[in-house]
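Can't attach files on this board, so I'm pasting raw text. These are the components:
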Amino acid sequence: MKFATRTLEIAGAWMLGIMWVTPLLYAAWTAFHPADFATHFDLTAPLTLGNFVRAWQAAPFARYFLNTTILVTIILVAQFLLCTPAAFAFARMEFPGRDILFGVVLLQLMVMPDVLLVGNYRTMAQLGLVDTILAIALPYLGSAFGIFLLRQTFRSVPQELDDAARLEGCTLMRRIWRVYVPLARPTYIAYGLVSVSYHWNNFLWPLVITNSVTTRPLTVGLSVFASTDQGIDWSIITAATLMTSAPLLLAFLLFQRQFVQSFMRAGIR
Amino acid sequence: MIRRRTLLAATAASAATLAAPAIARAQAMKLSFYYPIAVGGPIPAIIDGYCKAFHAETGIEVTPVYAGNYGETLTKAVTAIKGGSGPQLAVLLAAEMHSLQDLDILASLDEIGGLEGDGKAWLGGFYPAFLANSVVDGKTWSVPFQRSTAIMYYNKTAFTEAGLDPEKFPLTWAELGAAAEKLTKRDASGRVTRWGVKMASDVGNAQWTFGAIANQAGHVLMNQAGTETYFNDPKAIEGMAYWRGLASVHHATPEGITGWPALSPDFLEGNAAIIQHTTGNLTNLRSNAKFPFGVAGLPGKTGPRTVVGGGNIYFFKQASPAERAAALKFARFLTEPARAADWSIQTGYIAVRPDAYQTPALRDYVIHYPPADVARGFLPVAVGELSTFQNQRVYQALTNNIQACLSGKLTPQQAMVNTQAEADRILKPYKRG
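---
Top answer:
Structure tokens for the assembled complex are below.
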């Protein structure tokens, strides 16, 4: 019985894994071969880097990489800076209305960002920020998900450690910085990964709020290849897709172990 | 390159003689122009060039904003306008006219002075088929610009191989069905290695294919006001039955749903002998096909009929009177015969005015490459796109039922009756009186 369950689990895991990796394999195959072989599988097909060259030249990708990197960095740093004290307050401080306030923060998780498109746009227009990288980042700087996650982690930090630090004469900020943050490191890593990959891939809001090459992130640049009027050139699309997702893929492969462990510990699955 | 420079010089010169003393240079007027393509690639370079030429000529600065595909551009424009800092003009799908009107963000040509002076003559100079999605309530809401029609591309080698005359493309449904049957090739195990014909039935394209088919049956699917649809008409059902029949009777097209993005690759790799596609695809096929191919009109029940597609220039009402005038001037600049001709040559879109085909550049071009001129011949038998209020929802209802029919789950009759019932429900609030 136990054996059967185990086999089923392994088979299931393999199936999910294959389903997940197939598009990637197809992308890799198509990107490195001439367009003629996009739907012909032939091991002897000539290899080429031409698709990458064409994709790179089709749009100012260097600039888009820079924009995306600036964007995710701003968001990540701001989220850590803002979520940490908020989470600490909700986890360890007593003040009237705390639970109601926390409920309100959680409520934000239920609101789809797309619903706020017009409202956010209006705010950015009033601030005079339309068509800036800051405008892409601003609506996401405070994160209910981040606050929730860190609060749960902070609550699991033993009170004794906190008390000990206080006896040593640590100020509030020092206690957060020396006791809570180091212990919540797996949560930070896991949350950081989720945040970076979300904003690396975000499309609609950046498209709406940006107008020019100097502010647009990769995803918006990538859509140059999605124009279906002329029919789709799969080789060039897959090359561009691999190119733009490569940093994330590489980072994940390199830090795979840390990521998986962080996820296990942080309890996000 | 040389061609473009001389053209720019020529238009600048002609405009200077036309405009010269009357119009003082506008004081640093700036317009924002949303355009439905992403940054990069050849088309933005052409548009950038037009904007520069316009600036040199009039002093009005037009900033093109490349905003993704049609749907994304629409979202972006509507969001920006509702958010208080939108564009003054944009190219959006011609078929979105009713939906845009419903949002109450458009300024009609009548309001912005587009019909004053020689405006009426200018508007009368467009192909009527391209204005089919522009007029409602006696007002004109958009100017044709990036326009195409549905067209058939066929593999001449496959035609010869199947014993068909590669210079004679089928003209009627019956002929197409018979030819497609012959063109369908199966290997020893019965697996199809080449389909006779393929037409798109995926989301976003099924309604376009069907619009052409309805016209082929001699039927119009909606009223001009965009408040009523006529899907349950016997002619519409007959059209649906013909489409379904290509798979169920002739076995010449795959069962189920055929995706638009796969059409070109299938054609180029010889997996489909005939595809129904847009004129905008000609340049792509021309540079990538390794076999001789032909361009032909869509066969109809009794003779060829097609449908137009593509985008028009819209003007938005939050623009100031001065901005509206400048936007109108830019629209007229873009549709001058010489520029319409240049646009057609560089992109493959059909020039929107007959007089563009009188220009030496375009005349020489189509003599040199006749397939580029095939689509124009079918404009007299083209209709406008299916366009109603709540356009996307009606499209969705139609697409779902077409797909169910093509997969054999609904009869053509059921599919059309269902679509009509859903469309009636969607359009109920818009029925007047």
